[in-house]
Fold each of these.
Amino acid sequence: MKQPANQTVNVRFAGLGGTGVIKASDIFADVVFRAGHMVKKAEVHGMSQRGGSVQSDVRFGTEVHSPMIPDGTCDFLVVMEPTQVEVVRGGLRSNGVLITPADIATAKLPSAKALNVAMLGRLSRHFDIPEQVWYDSLRAHFPEKLHAANAAAFALGRNS
Amino acid sequence: MHFSQDKSGRLLLSGNEAVALAAWHCGVALGTGYPGTPSTEILESFSALGGKAQWAPNEKVAAEVALGAAFGRARVICTMKHVGLNVAADVLFTMTYSGVDGGYVLAVADDPGMASSQNEQDSRRYAEAAVAPLFEPADSQDAYDLLQVAFEVSERWKIPVIFRLTTRVSHSMSPVKPRFPLGTRPPMAGVPQPEFVRDIPSHVMVPGHARPAHRRLRAKMAEMEIWNDTQGPNRIERRQSTLGIVTAGISYHHAREAAPDASVLKLGLSYPLPLSLIRSFAASVDRCVVIEENDPWLATACRAAGIKVEAKDDAIFRYGELNVDRVRRILAHDSRPDPVAPRGKPPELCPGCPHRSSFEVMKELDCIVSGDIGCYTLAALPPLAAMDMMIDMGAAIGMGLGLRHVLPREQARRVVSVIGDSTFLHGGLPGLVEMAYNPPETGHVLVILDNGTTAMTGQQEHPGTGRRLDGSGTYRVSYEDMARAAGIKNVFSVNPIRERAKFKSLLAESLAKDELTVLIARSPCILAAGRITAWEKERKAAKQGAVESSAASACPECGGAGVPGAGEGKL
C-alpha cells in the first residue's frame, strides 16, 4: 500500500446510472476485503439509477467508521463518465488521484461496456494487492462468457 | 447467491443482506413485504438464501399475512419502506395491543434526505405512537446481531417489534461475522413451531378485549424499559469525559469519526428508551450531545425526562441525512448553511421507455394529469413536465376524481388519472371502485401504465405479472376484468409505442365522452422486456404441454398456466 498503514483510504466511484459505477465499486470493495482490510461501502440506489448522477464510496483500512467519505477527502476519484468530472472533482483531496476515461486507450477496449473494468485496472496500479486477487474478484462478479474480455480490459487499464 | 468472503469467514454484506441472513439464521418461517427503496433487497436476499418470501399487493396486506403467521406461533419478518408503514399503520396500532404468539419483526427502512422517496418521515415516531419496541442497527454486523435480539424480545414480551433501518444502513456494505457458516442450514432448536392455540380475548380486539389489552401493553413496555436499562442491546464506550454522545443507527458511526475521543452511549433498543442508563451516562460527562437524523425525537424524550442534553440545531440539521462533516458542525455549534454541492444530472426515463410515449400523448392532448408513484413520476420533470400532481400510492385516482367534481366542465374533461401496474394493485383498487360509485358528471379516464413489473424498485414481481417473488408462476390478475367487475363501461388495452396513434385517438375519444373509461397502456419495461419475453415463451410452452398431456389439469381461468408451480424457474 502506498498509503500510511493506519489511515483510512477513500475511493469514490462516480458516473451516470448504467455506466458500471456500482459494479466497479462492488468489485473494488471485494478486492480490498479479500486482501484482508476492514472495508465499508456506501451508495444510493433507486431514483438515481435512471441515467442520473451516481456515486459509490469505498473506504478501507484498519478501522473505518462512517461509510460515507467526508467532503474533500477522496484519495482516489474514479469517474466513468467525462461529463461528471467537474460535478465530483470537489470531493478529491489536494494531492488525490483522479482517474477518468481519458487515462484509458478506450479504442482498444474489447467492448465499451468494459470501461469500468479497465478503470479498475488503472486504479489497481496504486495498491500493493496481488494481481491475482483482482482477477479472482472479477471472475466472481461476471458470468463466464465475459471473463476473457474483462481480463483484457483490466490488463489494458493496469498497463496503460 | 454470491457474497464476498474473507479468509476468516467474514462476509461483506449490505445491511439488507445482513438482515436477510440473520432472518435465515433465526429460522424465520415467512417473509412478507412490498418493494420500496431502500428496503427491497431484504426479502429478495432472504428468498435467495432459501427462505420462504413473498411480495404482497401492499404493506397492509403484507403486515396482516405476517400477523396471521405470528398468531400461529411462527417467526416472521415483514419489510417495507417508511411510507409503506403509513399503509400498514392500521394493523400496527392494534397488533401491539393483541400482541403475537410467535416472533414478529417489522423491518422498516427510512430514507433521510429522500434519495428515492416522497418525504422523510421519521418512523421512530410510529414506534412511540403505536407502542412498539424500536431497534436501530448502525451497520451490517449490528443488523445481523440485533435481529436475533429483536426476535428474543418479540417472543419474550409477545409483541411485534419495529426494526428501523435507514438508507445508509440498508445500502452500505460492511463485514459480518455470521453465527453459522454460509451455505449451511442453521439448527432450528429454540425456534417456535407453528401451532394454532385458541385465545379469543387476545386476538379479537373488540372494546371489551382491547381495554385490558392496552393496559397490558403499557405494562409490558414498563417492564421492558427496566430490562433495557440494564440488559438491553445498548453500549457505553468510555473515552474522555469532556464530551459524551448519545446516538443510535448510522449516526453512531458519523459521531465516532467526527469525535474519536468522545465517550459514546450507543442505543440498540431505543424505544422504550433506557432513560436511567442515559441519565447516568449524561451525568458522567461534562457535555452530553444527542446525535440523531431528522426529527429531534431522542433529544426531546431525554429532555422531557429531565436529562440535560444538547440537541442539534433543527433549523439546519433536521433536513437531510447526517454525515461526518455535519456531525462535526453540530458538535461545534456551527449552524451556517450547508455547503452547496454542484448539481449532478437528474434521473430521467430510459431511452425507449414506454412511459415516454404515453406521457407525450397526454401532453399533446393537453391533459391535466393526476399522477402516481413509480418510474413514470419522472415524467413530471422537464422537458416532459407532463404530470401535475403526485402524493402517495393510489392517489392518482382519488385526486383526479376530486378535480373532475369541482373544475369547470372544459377543464374537468382534460383530467386523466395515471397509475402504474404495481401501484394500481397496491393502492388503486379502492379508487377504481370510487370512480364507479361516485362518477363525476364528465365521467373520468383512468390510464393504467402496465409495464409488467415493479420497475422503480428494481423489477420486482407483483400480482399482475403472474410470477411470485422467486420467479415461480402463479395466477395473473387481469386489470381489464377488475375494471369491468367494478362497473367501468369502457375498457381498452393498447400498446403506447407500437400503437401510439390508436392510444392517442382512444384517449381523445374517452376524454370527449361523459363516461368512465379505463385505458391500459401495455408495453413492457425495456429493462425487464427480455426477461418477460423469455418467461412468456416458457409459460406458453407449459400451457401447450398441459393441454396436450391432460385436458383435465387445465383450469378454465388460466388454462393451467396460472396454477402455482406451472412455468417454474427464475428468468
Amino acid sequence: MTSSAVALADVLAAEGGFQAPTIQEFYPEPLVSFSILGIDFEITRITIILWIATAAIVALLVAAVRKPEVVPGKLQFLGESGYSLVRDGMARDVIGPKGLPFAPFLGALFFFILANNAMSIIPFAQISPNSKFAIPLVLAVIVWILYNWVGIREQGAGKYFKDAAIPPGVPIGALILVTPIELLQVFIIRPFTLAVRLFANMFAGHMLLVVFSLGATYLITAGGIYPIFGVASFAMAIVMTFFEILVIVLQAYVFTVLTATYLAGSVEPAH
Amino acid sequence: MSILAAEETHNPLIPPLGEIIVGLIAFAVVYFVFARFVAPRFEQVFRARREAIEGGIERAEAMQAEAKAALEQYRAQLAEARSEAAQIRDQARAEGQQIIEELRAQAQEESARIMARGEEQLATARQQIVNELRGQIGTLAVDLAGRVVGESLAEDVRRRGTVDRFLDELDAMAAAGDGRSDGAVVVPESNR
C-alpha cells in the first residue's frame, strides 16, 4: 500500500473529521531493511521510484543516441534539445569559453533531477525522490565540492579563498560586513539553498497534491453540500498537477543554471 | 498511534546516511552513462551537423565563384570581340581611305599623262604643218617667180600689181604669225 493510500484509508476511517496528510507521507513503510557496515539501508517505495527514474532516464538517453543521425529522429531531437539547453545555454553562455568540459556534468545533473522530479506526477509513483532531502543534498554537496575544487585548480587556493573572503573593489571599511557574509554565502549558504530549494519545491508540491486529492475524496463522501466543494478540490488537484509540471522543469533548470553560475565564478576570477 | 510516535523521530532536513549513499550511487550511474556515452555521441552529432552545414556552404561558395569566373570570362571575351570589331572597322576605314587616295593619284597621273600626250601630238602636228608649209612656200615662190618671169614687160603695171599682191599676202601671213619663231603657222589659243 502506498503512503497516500494509507492516508486515504485514515481519511475515510476518521470519525472526527478530515485528517490532513502528515510528514509521514515521505516515510513509507520499508519493504526491506538491512545493515551494511553499521549503516542502515531501508528500501522503501521511494527508493524503488528513485531507481525507476534513474533507469528510465538512462534508458531514454541511451536510446536517444543509439543511432545518432545528422537529421535527428524524435527521441534524438528531444535528447539533443535538452542537452543543447545545458551545453549551449549554461556551459557555454554562463560559464564561458572554459565551460564546455562541464557540459556532461551539467547535463547529467539536469536529466537526473528532471527524471526524479517527473516522478511526482507519474501515476502510481506520484512522489519525487527529490522530496526526500537526501537526494538534493547529495547533488548540492557534489556541486559544492566541484566548484570549490575548480576554483582552487583554476585560480590557486590562495587567490580563490582571498577573492571569496575579500571581494575586489570593496572599500576596506565595508569588509567587516562583507567578508563574513561572503564566506558564509560561498561555503555554506550556496549549497544549502541549492539543496533546500529543490527539496522544498518537490516536498511542497507533493503535499499540495495530496491535500487537494484527499480533500476531494473526503468532501465527496462527506454528504450534504460538501460534494460540491469536493469537486472544486478535485479540480484544484488537476490544476496543481499542471503547476507541478512547470515546477518539475523549472527546478531542474534552476538547479543546473545555478551550478553553472557557481562554476563560472570559480573558473574566472571575480570581477 | 505508532505513526505519531514515528513522526517524532523524523526530521526531513536530517536524512539517514543510507539514503544519501543510495542517492549518490543513483546520480553516479546517471553521470557515468551520460559523460561516457551520451554526451560524446551528442557532441559527435553536433560536429557532424556543423560539418555538413559548413560543407554545404563551402560547396555553394565554390559554385558561386565558378559562376563568377565564367561571367568574368564571358565579359572579357565580349570586350575583346568588341575591341576587335572596332579595330577591324578602323582598319577597313583606313584601307578605304588609302584606296581612294590611290585611285585619286592614279586618276591624276592618268590625266596628266593624257594631257602630256595631247600636247605631244599637237606639237607633232604643228611640226608637220610647218614642214608642209615650208615646202608649199618654196613651191609657191618658185611658181610665183615663174609667173613673174613669164609675164610681158609691157604689162608693167599688172606685173607690179602681182608682185604687190604677193607681198601683201606674205605680209598678211607674217602679221598673223607674229611672235612665233617661224611666223608662218597660226595656232589657236584654245588648243593649248
